[in-house]
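For consistency, the fold was encoded as tokens, as this record shows:
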Amino acid sequence: MKVLVRASAALSLLFAPLAFAAPSFAQEAAPAEAAVAKEIAIPAPTAIQTGDETPWLYEGSNVPVDREWLFGAMDNGLRYAVRRNGVPPGQVSIRVRIDAGSLHERDDEQGFAHLLEHLLFRESKYLGQAEAIAAWQRLGATFGSDANAETSPTHTAYRLDIPNIDQAKLVESFRLLSGMIREPVLSEENVAAERRIVLAEKRERGGAGQRVADLTRRTFFAGQRLATRNPIGTVATLEAADAQGVQGFYNRWYRPENTVIVVAGDAEPEVLAGLVEQWFGDWQGKGEAGTPPDFGDPAAPEGAKASPVLSAPIGDLGIATEPDLPRNLTYAVMRPWRKVDDTIVYNEGLLLDAVAQAIINRRLEARARAGGSFLYAAVRQEDISRSTDATFVSLAPLTDDWQAALAEVRAVIADALASPPTQEEIDREAAEFDVVFANQVEQRSVQAGSELADNLVNAVDIRETVAAPEVVLEVFRGMKDRLNPAEVLERTRGLFEGSVIRSVYVTPELGEADEGRFKLALSSEVEVDGSARLAAQTIEFGDLPPVGEPGTIVSRVPLGVLEIERIDFDNGVKALIWANDAEPGRVTVRVRFGAGYRAFDEESAVYAPLGEVALVGSGLGELGQEELDRISTGRKIGFEFGIDDAVFTFTAQTRSEDVADQLYLFAAKLGMPRWDPDPVKRAKAAAELAYNTFATSPGGILARDLEYIQTDMDPRFATPDPEALESVTPEGFRKVWEPLLAQGPVEVLVFGQFDKEAIVEKLRRTFGALPEREPIAPEIAARVPDFPVTGGEPVVRFHRGDENQAAAVVTWPSAGGTARIREARQLEILTQVFNNRLMDALREQAGASYSPQVFSKWPEDLSSGGRITALAQLEPEFVPFFFAAADKIADDLATNPPTEDELERVTAPLAERIRRASTGNQFWLYNLEGATTDPARVRFLRSLLADYSQTTPEIMLLLADRYFVQKTPLKLAIIPEGQDLAETPPASAIPDVAPAPTAAQRERVQVIGR
């Protein structure tokens, strides 16, 4: 069942920049031809578990069966679970889980489970070499998101989300997938090809972070298989891998009795079950089945005894000295993992554990906010890889006095172990869980099938069940009498009892810690600190002061799309509201205001990234951070702040009953901001500690410097270094941000299920009550990033990571604004064609990079500043190869147009992403934001699907010439310190990845040329 442990306060955006709106109504049903009819000629399933038979997932459990799932167990041992789900309409999500991961590998097979995952996509019974990506794209799936796989220590799972499903596509998906799972081609040629890609993936994961991860794994799981089994494997075992060895691993573990297939989608469950049985029913394993190994238990060193202070003896301790990483200390109380009977009582215990952890974490956060000796600290219980049940305590010391930070954290925990929490503390955390579980019930009808499928796969992995949201809520509300101080104290103490305590400390300073001091710091007595306990003080929204005098509505008219209304207030604030039932109980709110990055100059630029972290925490009106947390208790309130090219944004995903209060908080932040200094100090400390970590890898340098370099060293896009941060003060923060909150137009968007007239009135009393805004000065509005002029010579930056790591980037300038938005959309098609070709050249043919990427940024709020970027992480000697390959692809695209098949592989997934996304409110909000000042966004919305799904080779040819030939790109190389850029390889060394144009295409190109 595995209940939630905590709701996230931040909104995770559903859509990336590519998730554009579709010109189909969100309320419309999926086209009839996209649904899978009951009368499909598929054999009727015979292995469904019906009647009084306990479904295989629920054996040994009294958790009520989720009857929307249909379970089956076939004679060959394969088990399945299927259900109908129409979110999004027309999609079917298929998961195939093999009960074998890196923990099942022999010593000389390390990395084989993951290598085999790659090989199944390389070639199989119905797919030729390297055909899988293209095949799934032709079915409308985006490789990497809709078609992917993962290898963990305990399993290998294949994930496919097939959109716009019909009978032919559904059958074809099962056919192709069955060939991959049952009959992969594990030849020497294929092993050699995928080995290079896996080694590239391993190389890209290397560096300081990976060294710490390896040390952490060896330390915490000493004596267990998990200590020496990383799914990526070792260089030695991967280089020694051959077809016979990989086939041997496959034969032992890829067997029907080790396989679970989960399908959730827009089709009748019996049809889905029939397809599983049709394509996997006669599957039989080859050779002798593998015997699952003993994963081992965490154990204390022989003869070790627990001290009077600790509940378990101290075992392995690890100290990592990494000059570019900030200090971090984690210790864990380890217990053996055992399979449980997933009962109601067991889940009540998990909920009590979750409440206990939440109470401690709230106290630790309060201590950090108040100026503690640590930046953050947290407690979490976790079952890891069926190897251990552990309670982890993690903290980040602010200085080299790590002993003081550890003692301060332990003192807060000691108080939680010594005395029960107050009932008020328990009730506060219980209210947080209740709103999460209640919201899941409200959202059940719009829960995506892909999420449901993933949840069931995860349940199989941890050997537990799944429960309907109503069951989870009922269990939680039914155990309220157990949420008392005595029981929470008992569960808290249980969290810190175990077999052994292990710990790892990461420090940038050599000699700062040794095993003796480390052990002493962990085992020393600490003074119980109850001062972090939070006083229970109820705050009601009704007690808060008004934002101002309610405003007057001067205009209220239909926007012209769906039933969206535009409302203008007399103070200049404009709103777009859409009350609908597409997502029951859910409301998305976004506030756009001000000038975004345009508002900063060289002097104030350092305060931009600090604002993203500290602005919300600095409070509003009478509410500081603690008060904001308290007033949000039992509510679904969000407060995400972001800085875009030309606008600031507040975003939240809330509930129907909370949207009015959400609007108050956003408006009050603009109208009566508070300026608490502690969040600024904490953000500054975090930035200082994090800065050196960027230098540890090419990826870190990209994150730190790429946008800065692409904008011709514009200080607004620089990551603040310690020297810049030294000048930061809370007073300076306020001086910069206070006028920005009062500057520029305000647009409020409210999309979801709510009482329209009540929210219009709330808008009038909140945003309508704000004072008139200060205009954005012309010189600020005109600030658009420049593009660097390099003459084509690469810019070189250096990292301090592994010597075999590098990165390369090519960026072409494009444009911006909505006036040319159709061109931007067509350019996205061209970019994706480029991406496929670069993937083929660098990954499939050369094995030089695991995941090269090409993407387009087209800022709609600016008239320019757009760019097309191609990047890859690779070995240093391959950097010139990357530049040459990118140049060759760019030149070819401007000379020979893409083939019809290339375009179909791009436009089909793009169109399906649009169709799927258009069923959600955030999708429409994303595409209509800014429409109150730029009405063209409404007009261009109508052509969106066509712009992304229809094009011609001639258009691609013209765009490639415009942006790849007529523009001089920026080239950036990131190589290890002390190395020089390698020489450019000869043109003959670059693979030809462009499909030959057809005769008809050549004729069209000649016509264009004339």
